[in-house]
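Data card: per-record layout.
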Amino acid sequence: MFEDSNIVVGLEIGTSKICVVVGEQNAEGAVNIIGLGQSLSSGVRKGEICDTEKVEQEVRAAIFEAEQMADVEIRSVYLGVTGGHIRGFNNRGVHPVVSADREISDDDVQDVIKNAKAINLPAENTVVHAVRQHFFVDGQDGVTNPVGMLGARLEVDMHVIHGHANRLQNAIRLVRATQLEVNEIVFTGIASALALLSSEQKELGALVIDIGGGTTEFVVYSEGVIRHAGVLAVGGDHVSNDLAFGLKVPLSRAQKLKHEYGSALITEAAKGQTISITNELGLTLKTVNLEHLQRIMSLRLEELFEIIAHELEKAGLTDYLRAGVFLCGGGSRVPAIAKLAERVFQMNVTHGHAGSMSGITAALDQPEFAAAIGLVKYGSLKNRRRERRGGLGGTLGSIKNMFGSFLQRS
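The structure for this 410-residue chain is written out next.
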């Protein structure tokens, strides 16, 4: 194995699985996926670590598998974070231009961005991302780069994503205990959107929904920038729990029924049909109504989409999603889920694919790997920006500055 400065690694510690994706960045900045490692996750609940010892072992196993496939030695990772404590909101910063000639400088831009980040968060919370949207110069909106313009008042809109500092640090400390460095933490919703959306789709307006085992992340892009982001502490595991309760079967059996007979919409074939549940000897223990099973799943998933749709309606973003809705995550594998989402959102819904990268098809074509692939893309974009700045921004990705990192327009 060898170390290569062009290697970028994404690590997602999910509720259902631990996933590691290794990418190799060429001189032109293109990324090729060369390694994939995964292990079942048993110490994570709703996207957050609840058994450090178990998760550490599982991370080591996934890292080892990825190293073997890629034939590299992994030293550092971009770490995906999620959880019900993570929130996103828009904030505006204001800065008076005080130079004699009123020409806006780089320092003025940095000051207005700093003011936009200076928000009253709960004492225990910290900023994960502060995403620049657009500048305003003396009331003129839609300014993407105000440097060199004349003005007396500079403003900037930013989308701020923040979370509970200690709960974020739990994941960082665990990874560092495996002798790996954390380049930066990244909200997994942003990572998924980076993996799936093209520049054109970001400009048109798109909603990305990543349905995991214990959480569902969603991110809205419009006019090329992030407009809204959020996390729901609901995922595929909750569908399984609903089935176990509604059908009065053990959770393990409910999960098997979900995978074998589940659907987001009630199928014609399910009406009047029953499923026989047998024991190890083949004896029938009980029968389950297939239509009832699919109705339980449909209601839970419909509620999930309706919550997101309500969030977007409150934010006034529903009419800006001209590219439609993109689904990913293991939970998006449920049959007919795109049709159900189309019924709720009243727009085109598709399963997203990581089309901007090349490499291992097994990773690129699987919806549950979108976040980890996006983490690699995030890291590659950071590397390219550092190269353009001649290495001056090298410390931006360090663990010391990971809170409050500035995710520029991409």
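Known properties of this structure: Confidence is low (pLDDT under 50) at residues 391-410. The CA atoms of residues 14 and 20 lie 11 Å apart.

See the next section for split statistics.
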